[in-house]
Write a structure and sequence with these properties.
globular, 105 residues, mainly alpha
Amino acid sequence: MTRAAAQQRFAHPVRAALLALAADAALVLLFSGLGRGSHAREATVLGLLETAWPFLAGLAITWISARISQRPLAVLNSGLPVWIGAAGIGLLLRWWTGGAWRSRS
């Protein structure tokens, strides 16, 4: 896809922001599903949501606080903060709510 075609496809800023947010959320769900699989957890929708909620919350917090919707396709100015925010805030929320690093005995 040429640069002009990509710019025209995402000419409407709300559409571009919604598509970027949907892609980010889908990647967080994929990350959570792969994490559950690597820890031999059962594959259920509720289990996936239990694992994903802190990272989805971190994603939402980062999108709002960093105003990602103003430049949703900028890799360094948006992508990097979203990745760091979703992972960092997500891990903090998991720790704070007792969802991670707890004893499995």
